[in-house]
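Work Package 4 report. The design task specified in the project plan requires that, given a folded chain encoded as structure tokens, an amino acid be chosen for each position. We show below one input record used in the internal validation round.
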């Protein structure tokens, strides 16, 4: 399993100075990620303007799991997939878990986070069609099953 990327440059996503909600971040530069495993290979390119909250970690758990920490790249890919619906929700959740494994996140930690998105991710999955189309203009996704 192999995952490669650089961390993107992000800034608070605010309509005007001083109006940041303390949660959402806007991507400022083009970001690329590639992944390969025995199951699948894929690449993602996210262009400036995409908004992410990093990991959608409940406040009470942020002492254990940081929304912008070590797993930020996995969260960004996951948010990109949720924001575009290029794959179905179970596949997006699996991709996040596979990236975390490739990053060296332990089995218990990644399975707890996977269980969290499986249980509560439906609230983030349901997006208006206009937002999905907007995100698809910002995100390129190419996937191939390994034969």
């Amino acid at each position: 399993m192999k995952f490669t990327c650089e961390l993107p440059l992000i800034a608070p996503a605010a309509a005007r100075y001083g109006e940041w909600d303390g949660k959402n971040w806007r991507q400022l530069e083009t970001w690329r990620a590639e992944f390969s495993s025995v199951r699948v290979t894929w690449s993602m390119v996210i262009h400036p303007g995409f908004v992410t909250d990093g990991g959608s970690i409940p406040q009470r758990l942020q002492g254990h799991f940081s929304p912008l920490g070590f797993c930020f790249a996995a969260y960004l890919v996951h948010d990109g997939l949720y924001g575009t619906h290029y794959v179905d929700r179970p596949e997006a959740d699996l991709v996040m878990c596979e990236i975390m494994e490739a990053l060296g996140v332990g089995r218990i930690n990644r399975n707890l986070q996977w269980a969290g998105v499986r249980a509560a991710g439906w609230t983030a999955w349901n997006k208006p069609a206009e937002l999905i189309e907007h995100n698809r203009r910002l995100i390129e996704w190419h996937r191939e099953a390994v034969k």
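The chain has a mean pLDDT of 91. Validation will be extended to a larger panel in the next phase.
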